[in-house]
Amino acid sequence: MSQAFIKKEGIAQSYLSRYLLVLEKGCRLKTIGELAKDCDLSVGLMQSALKSLEALGAINIERRGRNGSFIAMIDHKLLIKFANIGNIVCAMPLPYARVYEGLASGLKTQFLDIPFYFAHMRGSDIRIECLENGVYDLAVTSRLAAEQHLIEHNVHIALALGKYSYAEGHKLIYRQGALNDIRRVGVDSTSTDQKIITEQWSTGGNYDFVDVSYHECLNKIVSGEIDAAIWNVGQGKELEQLGLTTQSLVDDKNLNHDYFYKASEAVILTRKDDIQLQQLITTMIDPNALLAHQKHVIDGVIEPVY
């Protein structure tokens, strides 16, 4: 916040900056009186705040007399500096895979001007529930998981990052030479992706389902507690060393391949009514730069920082 302002002037400037963040060029502004009433400040303070943002180059106003005032130019990134935005906390998957580390590191880099933190937790259902309840501001899930909640829940896809930005490919994992002996299949009850894909794969089969934390699936297969699980495969050599092997599911004509593609795409969720944060994501995030950063982490070119 600019030190040229006393406390109330700073409040007026930050309130006005937040209001303007969700507007675009050509939008009609509320009157100064309406804005002052909204934040319980004087008209003089609000008028001064508007003039200061114009002088700083954050906005240019076209005044049309009785027809009102309209935005002729707006610099959202500059407005962020004056909006006095507090901490933003994003619910992320546990960072057990490089694809998730790359995504977290890339997001952290994109939000350098804002206090941006992560809460890492297993299960897309839990992350979405925490988002809806206001515990966190953002949540990262697959498109497949997000679409199960869009209609009946207060969530909105603010940004989609394309295929393989969330998972490289789900496959059936089991002990080498034991494909025909699969009976106990691990499923994480909090993972929408794994539940849906496992249900599709297992249709018509005779299996016992065991509730297993997603990131513990491999260890449970190795120990013999379960025989198989659907898992996001991205570590072929490590699987061989563990005595495990995989079977592709994408080639199975009996399965809905659209599910696999949606399960591979990362999306960033907000609450439906959080227009300001949706605008912030649009302003701050360069999807191409984010994906390039993620790939560098996956390839070992850079170390993740989050």
Automatic annotation (TrEMBL):
A Pfam family reported for this protein in Swiss-Prot or TrEMBL: YhfZ_C
InterPro entries: HTH_41, YhfZ_C
Residue intervals of the YhfZ helix-turn-helix domain: 26-71
Domain Uncharacterised protein YhfZ C-terminal: start-end pairs: 75-306
NCBIfam families assigned to the protein according to its UniProt record, in alphabetical order: YhfZ_full
Name of protein: Transcriptional regulator
Organism: Providencia burhodogranariea DSM 19968
Upper classification of the organism: Bacteria, Pseudomonadati, Pseudomonadota, Gammaproteobacteria, Enterobacterales
